[in-house]
Amino acid sequence: MFLIPFCCHAGGTDSMEQICKSLTLNQWAFLEHFYSTVCTTTWLCDNRAPFHLTKDVNGFEQVVLWNPRGASARVNLNGGQVISWRNHRGEELLFNSSKANFKVPKTVRGGISACFPQFGKCDALDQHGFARKRMWKIDENPPPMRLNDSRGKSYVDLMLKPAEEDLKYWPHSFEFRLQVSLALDGNLSLVSRIRNINGKPFNFSFAYHTYLSVSDISEVRIEGLETLDYLDNLCKRERFTEQGDAITFESEVDRVYLSSAPCVAVLDHEKKRTYVVRKEGLPDVVLWNPWDKKSKAMADFGDSDYKQMLCLDGAAIETGVTLKPGEEWTGQVELAAIPSSFCTDNIHPRLKLF
Ligand code: TA6
Questions:
Q1: How far is CA 85 from the centre of its chain?
Q2: Are 21 and 87 in contact (CB under 8 A)?
Q3: What single string gives the DSSP state of each residue in 180-208?
Q4: Using a 6 Å cutoff on CB, does residue 108 contact ligand 1?
Q5: Burial class (CB in 10 A: 0-12, 13-18, 19+), 306
Q6: Is 254 in the pocket of ligand 1 (CB under 6 A)?
Q7: Closest C-alpha to 67, from 148, 182, 181
Q8: 170 and 130 in contact (C-beta within 8 Å)?
Q9: Which residues contact 67 (CB under 8 A, 6 or more apart)?
Q10: Of 102-106, 139-143, 326-330, which gets the smallest average pLDDT?
Q11: Does ligand 1 come within 6 angstroms of the Cβ of 231?
Q12: Per the confidence metrics, is the pTM higher than 0.70?
């Protein structure tokens, strides 16, 4: 028993998964007690569970987060990209393309990346901005967050400042702090804080480009976007109103839903799993599936990969965000993956508020 926290701390990731699967309920109860008392007071005085800095198989730096039940998340310092989120059974919840290239330090097609300072491709900036292409640093001493309950969470704080090259195309100084955390219940949260340290106001758009793993896209239903207006990227961003009940997929979808409620659910019938995405500071939602034709046109995407994924991004796109000098913006998402013996009416009580 006592080995488990130490495995976690020392980064024995594979054996940790094996050990977690073999634990009885009583052992879990003991472990939780152990974490909330002994570990947190002897290792870290702020009650957080430790994170582990490691290198992936290609030698790139990666942060591993574990929770005491065996859920985990992996964050690449390159791109500040969350590349994996697993539940306590070791099941991967994020999609990574079967042709994703992990060998070069660039954005991997999959996972979750923060798109900043633009979502899409409007001007000289790269598609979805440069933040996901830069090397992030671990921020050892971030300013405290409003209402941040770090108890029992495993989390890492990352930081990005503009490179010389970025200022040529987007001449605004900023500090971008990203906290990725894994809670005791296995929920994954990303909190971005972007501060204007420029002499002038600036405007940006933003999205957490989130590739969720699903069993079969034809069996998936989205709830929480009914009756909303959306911009259709397949029709030159023309504005439409969603007519149907829950959204299902039968062909390519590439839309920005405007001003949605804080909760959107993805119901995966085959897996009997529901993802609930809760967002704050992010009025819009991007929904994307490339379907068969576009899949074949993407070099780093398998021809049939579209069947096992969809992107559902909490975003601020239509009006973007304007920050005056010295101002800071916060945008966050919390992702939960819960069994589908669940109805939409229960979304709100089952998820704690930010
Ligand atoms: O709306 C989502 C979208 O912008 C699509 O148009 C598609 O291009 C997709 O994102 C791809 O993004 P990625 O950066 O993952 O290639």
A1: 9
A2: no
A3: EEE-TT--EEEEEEEEE-SSS-EEEEEEE
A4: no
A5: buried
A6: yes
A7: 182
A8: yes
A9: 49, 88, 152, 153, 154, 182, 183, 184, 186
A10: 102-106
A11: no
A12: yes
Please report, as a single letter, which amino acid is at residue 36: S
**What is the chain's Cα-based Rg?**
20
List CB contacts of 45: < 8 A, sequence separation 6 or more: none
CA of 54 to the centre of ligand 1 (A): 29
Closest residue CA from atom 16 of ligand 1: 109
Judge whether 73 and 180 are in contact, CB under 8 Å: yes
Task: Using the atom order of ligand 1, give the atom closest to the CA of residue 211.
Answer: 15
Q: Ligand 1, residues 208, 209, 210, 294: which to mutate, most atoms within 8 A of Cβ?
A: 209
At 115-133, the pLDDT tens digits run: 999 998 877 788 899 999 9
Q: In terms of Cα–Cα distance, which of 1, 6, 63 is closest to 26?
A: 1
257 CB near ligand 1 (under 6 Å): no
Beta bridge partners of 267: 221, 274
Average pLDDT over residues 70-82: 96
